[in-house]
Amino acid sequence: MKQRETWATRTGFILAAVGSAVGLGNIWRFPFVTGEGGGAAFLLVYLLFVALIGFPAILAEFVIGRKTELNPVGALMELGGTGWKYVGGIFILTGFVILSFYSVVAGWFTRYFLEGFRGSYGSLLAGYEGAAAEAGEPEAAIMFADLSTGLDAFVFHTLFMAVTIGVVALGIRRGIELAVKVMVPAIVLLLVGMAVWAFTLPDAGAGYAYYLSPEFSVVAENWTTLLPAAAGQAFFTLSLGMGVMITYASYLGEDRNLGRDGTAIIGFDTGIAFLTGLVVFPVFFAAGITEPGEGGAGAIFISMTEAFATISGGHLIGLLFFGTVMIAALSSAISLLEVVTAYVIDEKGIDRWKAALGMGSVIYVLGVPVTYDLIFLDLLDGFADGILLVFGALMLVLLVGWIAPAFAVQELEKGIGDLGSLGEAWLWAIRVPVLVVLVITLSLGVLEYVDFLTGPFADWIGENV
Ligand code: PHE
Predict the structure, then answer these.
(1) Nearest residue to 321 (alpha-carbon basis) of 312, 337, 308
(2) 364-390 confidence digits (pLDDT tens)
């Protein structure tokens, strides 16, 4: 049998995992779902979710991957029995669904980046003045409406997907590790710089208050919607619940300290999301957007372009910003396609490049409707985050906690040493409290999605078909 690929350097694994985690989830999705959830109340539930559910769950994926050295489908079957191949199948499906819309959104960032070479963001917005006056909306909103659907979006979706396929086809070492080593430091520097600048904005205080002072009564009143939204965001941003971390841990040849790696990955990812909030909310309020939940998928594009159009040096900062997000999105998209590709290579014995091209093409086609109408973004994103990822995490916890617990603590202890009662504590945490929260969250998520299907989506069908 062909020798399985492994990470080239000791840091390769952690860099790639961080590269997968840090992406559109932190910079594009986090601000608008935080806005939809009412700001600080959402932030609080999200942070609790990351620490109390995300951390034990990422360890579960790590031990499964490193123990079996297999793709998610093979890994689940080896540990749980053949019936688990269906669960693994759902993981692969999740990869399809997420990457399909992810590539379209990443295409928007690519477009905004390249637009910056045609002129400053201020001059680009000036081009929309007429249309904006006619519609009675800000130029930046018209620009987003123009670029986010139609042929413009289609072309950049195509471009982004082609690059993703190319990197995955090149293989684990050459493609993924390299991309990440550049991107992670760049993004941290850029966000810190922008957060400092945002601090100087006129209405920054209102932005911080909205973002950082939770009202517990709001949490208590809205927990049925906050819980699934926070869970979906937590799993999405950590790349959890569909086997990315299983796949990446399966290339670990050595005994790394998985507890420390998990902490570092989660710390990085959460730190970057938090920093993004420190940039975006002051900018929203400075721009007079006091209902940040209403911006939806376009929020970050609209508010940031306006900001880049007004501040001095905005042209360069804008280029850097959109460019960095584009690279961050690429390293996440790579991980999504890698899961699907690893499955086809391992289980069907197909060459890497054929697998990447074949699967990538199907995913590409699935994403095309999003370039036609943004309702398809809600359709795919809501299904993936509200249902599929939470379901996936639930299954992982069930497998490690109840079905095949014998190996788990032992595997975790490799590279750490004797965990004593901590290992047992981890197992019992995922066996009962984590499991119960996930069951409740999944049920709420299904209800929300049904509401979407029978509400906004049904209306859209009624109007358009
Ligand atoms: N974590 C990535 C992000 O935040 C998205 C992702 C989800 C990647 C699931 C892989 C798996 O952008």
Answers:
(1) 308
(2) 999 999 999 999 999 999 999 999 999
Residue with tokens 């993703």: 164
Amino acid (one-letter) located at 356: A
Task: Report how many domains make up the chain.
Answer: 1
Structure tokens at 419: 């965990």
pLDDT tens across 23-54, in order?
999 999 999 999 999 899 999 999 999 999 99
Q: Note whether residue 4 is domain-resident.
A: no
Report residue 221 as tokens. 């009143």
Residue 115 has pLDDT above 80, yes or no: yes
Asked, for residue 7, whether it belongs to a domain, the answer is: no
Distance in Å, CA 386 to ligand 1 centroid: 14
Question: Does a structural domain hold residue 5?
Answer: no
Query: How far away, in angstroms, is 37 Cα from ligand 1 center?
Result: 20
The tokens for 374 are 């943004």
**Ligand 1: centre distance to CA 311 (Å):** 31
SS3 72: helix
SS3 310: helix
> How far is the C-alpha of 103 from the C-alpha of 438, rounded, in Å?
28
Cα 132 to averaged position of ligand 1 atoms, centre (Å): 34
Query: At residue 152, what is the residue type?
Result: D
Considering the chain, what is the average pLDDT of its residues? 92
Number of the ligand 1 atom closest to the C-alpha atom of 333: 8
Q: Whose CA is nearest to atom 6 of ligand 1?
A: 239
355 occurs within a structural domain:
yes
Ligand 1 pocket test, candidate residues 92, 176, 324, 335, most atoms within 8 A of CB: 335
Encode pLDDT of 308-323 as tens digits: 998 878 899 899 889 9
Cβ-Cβ contacts under 8 Å for 330 (sequence gap 6 or more): 106, 160, 163, 164, 167, 179, 183
Atom of ligand 1 nearest to the CA of 328: 12
- Which is more confidently placed, 194 or 171? 194
- Residue to probe by mutation, ligand 1, list 24, 164, 239, most atoms within 8 Å of CB: 239
Identify the CATH number of the domain in which residue 196 sits: 1.20.1740
Q: Which residues line ligand 1 (CB under 6 A)?
A: 20-21, 23-26, 98, 236-237, 239, 242, 244, 332, 335-336
| Residue range(s) defining the domain that contains residue 244 | 12-464
